[in-house]
Fold this sequence. Notes:
By secondary structure, the chain is an alpha/beta fold. It is built from 15 helices and eleven strands. It has three domains: 131 residues, no CATH class; 39 residues, no CATH class; 154 residues, RNA polymerase II accessory factor, Cdc73 C-terminal domain (Rossmann fold).
Amino acid sequence: MAASSADPVLVLRDCFRDRKINQVKEEDGSIIFPSGARFPVDTATAFSVGKKQNTSLLLLFYTAKFFQKRLAYIKKCKEAKIVFLPQTEVDQVMGFLQGLSDAYVGTGGTASTVAAGGSSAAQHETGAADGRRGEARASESKTSQGAPADAKKDAKRQFREIAMHDRNSLLSIPGNDFSFALKYYKDARAKVSAASRRGSRDAPTPATMAKVLGDAATPVRDDRTPIIVVPNTGSAVITLFNAKEFLQDGVFQNSQAKRQSGAAKPQNLSVKRKQPNAEYMVIDNPTKLNPKDWQRVVAVFALGKDWQFKNWKWSTPVELFAHVLGIFVKWEDEAAPTTVTKWNVKILSLSRNRAHMNHTASMHFWQLLDEFVKVSRPEFTRD
């Protein structure tokens, strides 16, 4: 069958939006779409991402199909001997496929704009028309004496633009002065001290002081610290003995080996993240939690046995993993238990010999947790 003449990027986008990406077939050196469109796997598209020009259709297809399975995506790309995209560029591709971004360089080098609806053919035709109008405007601008001035204005504007990411980058903008906040803080402290010395009836209570001073009166580790639960058994892959190294540093250490070496079991384990700046409590005995503490549990590492959840607030896998992110960790050369595959949990695979794969698994956990918190537990979202 001859290759289709349609724009492969638009065909891929239509297929993804129609939730038919798993129906796409890769066989006989071609990528075959449910619509019947067929393209060679080495088709160079006009899609650009990062520093990559003319991104291959096969890479875009793997990105769309495995964007939620980072390890499977990397493995598939390596098998095909193509370079996989870093996560930031995967996000750019998915933004286009999901309709968050709708412009790219289309077939033939003309600027194509893909509307939120409509067929690929209509979109492609609209893009071509836009491209012809763009070329006409470009031709007119060459004869205009004001073009150089406009270009200088654009360059100057772009030079002044600053990308905002978080509160720290906001504070670092040249010219911003937040000294007034320090003045307010000092004034408030002075009022509190003066009232205390006078013994006035109006002296603020600790609660009032906390409202006046804000975070200055709030303990570093308060009742909003999210909780991660790990199994309380030596047979688990992740326990309190190695949770901090794995979650905080991305390094896996054998839990049983640490136990046998005489290492003491950690108490009040705390895991810190730099980006975003956040702290998490890690425990292995949630039966001691009160109802308010249970509202702070955001993730549970499952052992694969129902008895792990005995006497918990949510004592069945169905109920538990409807409220928290479920994680099951296994070795890459072992299959997940049948019971686990029926639970609403995400599976992380560790390698016995390839340390970099374990670091990737740690990063994948945080990515899954961030996505879960953003949707289901926004009160724990960090900057």
